[in-house]
UniProtKB/TrEMBL annotation:
This is Response regulator. The keyword Cell membrane does not apply. The modification 4-aspartylphosphate is found at residue 54. SUPFAM superfamilies: C-terminal effector domain of the bipartite response regulators, CheY-like. Residues 148-213 form the HTH luxR-type domain. InterPro entries: CheY-like_superfamily (IPR011006), NreC/VraR/RcsB-like_REC (IPR058245), Sig_transdc_resp-reg_C-effctor (IPR016032), Sig_transdc_resp-reg_receiver (IPR001789), Tscrpt_reg_LuxR_C (IPR000792), WalR-like (IPR039420). It comes from Streptomyces bullii.
Protein backbone atom coordinates (compact mmCIF):
# COMPACT_ATOMS: atom_id res chain seq x y z
CA UNK A 1 0.00 0.00 0.00
CA UNK A 2 1.37 3.42 -1.01
CA UNK A 3 0.90 5.93 1.81
CA UNK A 4 0.45 9.57 0.79
CA UNK A 5 0.48 12.80 2.80
CA UNK A 6 -1.39 15.80 1.37
CA UNK A 7 0.09 19.21 2.22
CA UNK A 8 -1.94 22.13 0.85
CA UNK A 9 -3.56 25.13 2.47
CA UNK A 10 -6.70 24.76 0.34
CA UNK A 11 -9.09 22.26 1.92
CA UNK A 12 -10.95 21.73 -1.35
CA UNK A 13 -7.74 20.71 -3.12
CA UNK A 14 -6.93 18.24 -0.36
CA UNK A 15 -10.47 16.84 -0.41
CA UNK A 16 -10.38 16.29 -4.16
CA UNK A 17 -7.01 14.56 -4.08
CA UNK A 18 -8.01 12.47 -1.07
CA UNK A 19 -11.19 11.20 -2.76
CA UNK A 20 -9.25 10.20 -5.87
CA UNK A 21 -6.33 8.56 -4.06
CA UNK A 22 -8.38 6.68 -1.45
CA UNK A 23 -10.47 5.14 -4.22
CA UNK A 24 -7.41 3.23 -5.47
CA UNK A 25 -6.74 -0.28 -4.14
CA UNK A 26 -2.99 0.35 -3.77
CA UNK A 27 -3.00 3.93 -2.40
CA UNK A 28 -4.18 5.49 0.85
CA UNK A 29 -4.03 9.03 2.23
CA UNK A 30 -2.19 8.66 5.54
CA UNK A 31 -2.64 12.26 6.61
CA UNK A 32 -3.11 15.90 5.70
CA UNK A 33 -1.48 19.25 6.52
CA UNK A 34 -2.50 22.84 5.82
CA UNK A 35 0.90 24.52 6.16
CA UNK A 36 4.59 23.69 5.95
CA UNK A 37 5.24 23.37 9.68
CA UNK A 38 2.34 20.99 10.11
CA UNK A 39 3.50 19.05 7.06
CA UNK A 40 6.92 18.49 8.65
CA UNK A 41 5.35 17.27 11.89
CA UNK A 42 3.04 14.90 10.06
CA UNK A 43 5.84 13.59 7.84
CA UNK A 44 7.99 12.78 10.86
CA UNK A 45 5.03 11.15 12.60
CA UNK A 46 3.60 9.14 9.70
CA UNK A 47 6.66 8.50 7.44
CA UNK A 48 4.57 8.47 4.23
CA UNK A 49 5.95 7.12 0.97
CA UNK A 50 4.95 10.24 -0.97
CA UNK A 51 4.16 13.82 0.01
CA UNK A 52 2.12 15.96 -2.37
CA UNK A 53 3.41 19.38 -1.26
CA UNK A 54 2.01 22.72 -2.34
CA UNK A 55 4.73 25.26 -3.09
CA UNK A 56 2.89 28.22 -1.56
CA UNK A 57 1.73 27.63 2.02
CA UNK A 58 1.59 29.76 5.19
CA UNK A 59 4.08 29.61 8.07
CA UNK A 60 6.58 27.57 6.07
CA UNK A 61 6.36 27.32 2.29
CA UNK A 62 6.60 24.04 0.45
CA UNK A 63 10.07 24.79 -0.87
CA UNK A 64 11.57 25.25 2.60
CA UNK A 65 9.65 22.25 3.92
CA UNK A 66 10.93 20.08 1.08
CA UNK A 67 14.49 21.13 1.75
CA UNK A 68 14.14 20.11 5.41
CA UNK A 69 12.64 16.75 4.46
CA UNK A 70 15.40 15.92 1.98
CA UNK A 71 18.12 16.99 4.43
CA UNK A 72 16.80 15.00 7.40
CA UNK A 73 18.53 11.58 7.51
CA UNK A 74 15.55 9.73 8.93
CA UNK A 75 13.35 10.82 6.05
CA UNK A 76 15.50 9.48 3.22
CA UNK A 77 12.73 7.29 1.86
CA UNK A 78 10.08 10.01 1.72
CA UNK A 79 9.49 11.28 -1.82
CA UNK A 80 8.20 14.81 -2.32
CA UNK A 81 6.18 15.90 -5.34
CA UNK A 82 5.57 19.64 -5.49
CA UNK A 83 2.14 20.98 -6.40
CA UNK A 84 1.96 24.21 -8.36
CA UNK A 85 -0.63 26.27 -10.18
CA UNK A 86 1.58 26.84 -13.23
CA UNK A 87 3.61 24.31 -15.19
CA UNK A 88 6.79 26.41 -15.12
CA UNK A 89 6.41 27.99 -11.72
CA UNK A 90 9.43 30.13 -10.79
CA UNK A 91 10.11 27.91 -7.77
CA UNK A 92 10.02 24.56 -9.57
CA UNK A 93 13.69 24.65 -10.49
CA UNK A 94 14.77 25.42 -6.93
CA UNK A 95 12.43 22.69 -5.70
CA UNK A 96 14.18 20.09 -7.82
CA UNK A 97 17.56 21.37 -6.63
CA UNK A 98 16.24 20.99 -3.08
CA UNK A 99 15.53 17.30 -3.61
CA UNK A 100 11.93 17.14 -4.76
CA UNK A 101 11.23 14.15 -6.98
CA UNK A 102 9.29 16.35 -9.36
CA UNK A 103 6.18 18.45 -9.62
CA UNK A 104 2.59 18.42 -10.79
CA UNK A 105 0.22 21.17 -11.79
CA UNK A 106 -2.89 21.17 -9.62
CA UNK A 107 -5.25 20.75 -12.56
CA UNK A 108 -3.49 17.63 -13.81
CA UNK A 109 -5.70 14.83 -15.11
CA UNK A 110 -6.64 12.23 -12.44
CA UNK A 111 -4.85 9.38 -14.23
CA UNK A 112 -1.67 11.47 -14.40
CA UNK A 113 -1.80 12.14 -10.67
CA UNK A 114 -2.14 8.42 -9.95
CA UNK A 115 0.66 7.60 -12.36
CA UNK A 116 2.84 10.21 -10.68
CA UNK A 117 2.36 8.78 -7.19
CA UNK A 118 3.16 5.27 -8.39
CA UNK A 119 6.13 6.47 -10.45
CA UNK A 120 7.95 8.25 -7.63
CA UNK A 121 7.49 5.25 -5.34
CA UNK A 122 9.08 3.11 -8.06
CA UNK A 123 12.08 5.45 -8.03
CA UNK A 124 11.32 7.47 -11.13
CA UNK A 125 11.39 11.26 -11.20
CA UNK A 126 8.35 13.16 -12.28
CA UNK A 127 9.33 16.44 -13.85
CA UNK A 128 5.86 16.99 -15.27
CA UNK A 129 3.49 14.86 -17.32
CA UNK A 130 3.89 15.61 -21.00
CA UNK A 131 6.26 18.59 -20.62
CA UNK A 132 9.49 17.00 -19.38
CA UNK A 133 11.67 18.22 -22.23
CA UNK A 134 10.23 21.73 -22.11
CA UNK A 135 10.86 21.91 -18.37
CA UNK A 136 14.45 20.73 -18.78
CA UNK A 137 15.03 23.28 -21.54
CA UNK A 138 13.75 26.02 -19.22
CA UNK A 139 15.87 24.71 -16.35
CA UNK A 140 18.91 24.72 -18.64
CA UNK A 141 18.27 28.31 -19.65
CA UNK A 142 18.19 29.36 -15.99
CA UNK A 143 21.03 27.18 -14.78
CA UNK A 144 24.28 28.64 -13.53
CA UNK A 145 27.68 28.16 -15.12
CA UNK A 146 28.80 24.50 -14.98
CA UNK A 147 30.54 23.49 -11.79
CA UNK A 148 33.71 21.43 -11.71
CA UNK A 149 33.05 17.98 -13.12
CA UNK A 150 35.33 16.13 -10.70
CA UNK A 151 32.53 13.95 -9.37
CA UNK A 152 31.97 12.54 -12.86
CA UNK A 153 35.37 10.83 -12.64
CA UNK A 154 33.61 8.10 -10.64
CA UNK A 155 31.50 7.17 -13.64
CA UNK A 156 32.31 4.82 -16.49
CA UNK A 157 32.10 6.14 -20.04
CA UNK A 158 28.77 4.38 -20.53
CA UNK A 159 27.40 5.82 -17.27
CA UNK A 160 28.32 9.32 -18.42
CA UNK A 161 26.56 8.66 -21.69
CA UNK A 162 23.46 7.45 -19.86
CA UNK A 163 23.54 10.45 -17.51
CA UNK A 164 23.65 12.82 -20.48
CA UNK A 165 20.61 11.10 -21.99
CA UNK A 166 18.76 11.38 -18.68
CA UNK A 167 19.74 15.05 -18.68
CA UNK A 168 18.01 15.73 -21.98
CA UNK A 169 14.84 14.08 -20.75
CA UNK A 170 14.94 10.55 -22.15
CA UNK A 171 13.11 7.75 -20.34
CA UNK A 172 14.76 4.38 -19.66
CA UNK A 173 12.95 2.94 -22.69
CA UNK A 174 14.21 5.77 -24.92
CA UNK A 175 17.74 5.39 -23.56
CA UNK A 176 17.58 1.65 -24.27
CA UNK A 177 16.59 2.29 -27.88
CA UNK A 178 19.29 4.94 -28.31
CA UNK A 179 22.03 2.65 -26.95
CA UNK A 180 20.57 -0.58 -28.36
CA UNK A 181 20.33 -2.26 -24.97
CA UNK A 182 17.44 -3.64 -22.94
CA UNK A 183 15.32 -1.30 -20.78
CA UNK A 184 16.51 -3.24 -17.73
CA UNK A 185 20.14 -2.58 -18.66
CA UNK A 186 19.38 1.11 -19.14
CA UNK A 187 17.65 1.25 -15.75
CA UNK A 188 20.63 -0.47 -14.13
CA UNK A 189 23.02 2.10 -15.59
CA UNK A 190 20.82 4.95 -14.35
CA UNK A 191 20.61 3.42 -10.86
CA UNK A 192 24.37 2.88 -10.61
CA UNK A 193 25.01 6.45 -11.74
CA UNK A 194 22.65 7.78 -9.07
CA UNK A 195 24.37 5.72 -6.37
CA UNK A 196 27.85 6.85 -7.41
CA UNK A 197 26.88 10.52 -7.44
CA UNK A 198 24.68 10.37 -4.34
CA UNK A 199 21.66 11.55 -6.31
CA UNK A 200 18.41 11.14 -4.41
CA UNK A 201 16.47 10.36 -7.58
CA UNK A 202 16.30 10.94 -11.32
CA UNK A 203 15.36 14.60 -10.96
CA UNK A 204 18.56 15.33 -9.07
CA UNK A 205 20.51 13.45 -11.73
CA UNK A 206 19.15 15.90 -14.30
CA UNK A 207 20.28 18.82 -12.14
CA UNK A 208 23.76 17.30 -11.77
CA UNK A 209 23.99 16.71 -15.53
CA UNK A 210 23.58 20.45 -16.11
CA UNK A 211 25.58 21.65 -13.12
CA UNK A 212 28.54 19.47 -14.08
CA UNK A 213 28.46 20.70 -17.68
CA UNK A 214 27.81 17.20 -19.02
CA UNK A 215 24.69 18.59 -20.70
CA UNK A 216 24.46 22.13 -21.99
CA UNK A 217 21.55 24.39 -22.93
CA UNK A 218 20.58 24.03 -26.57
CA UNK A 219 21.13 20.26 -26.81
CA UNK A 220 17.43 19.59 -27.03
CA UNK A 221 17.20 21.13 -30.49
Amino acid sequence: MIRVLLADDQSLVRAGFKALLDAQPDIEVAGEASDGEEALRRIRELRPDVVLMDIRMPRLDGLAATRRVTEEPGLDDVKVVMLTTFELDEYVFEAIRSGASGFLVKDTEPEELLRAVRAVVAGDALLSPGVTRRLIAEFAARSKEPAAAGSLARLTEREREVMALVGIGLSNEEIARRLVVSPLTAKTHVSRTMVKLGARDRAQLVVLAYESGLVRPGWLG
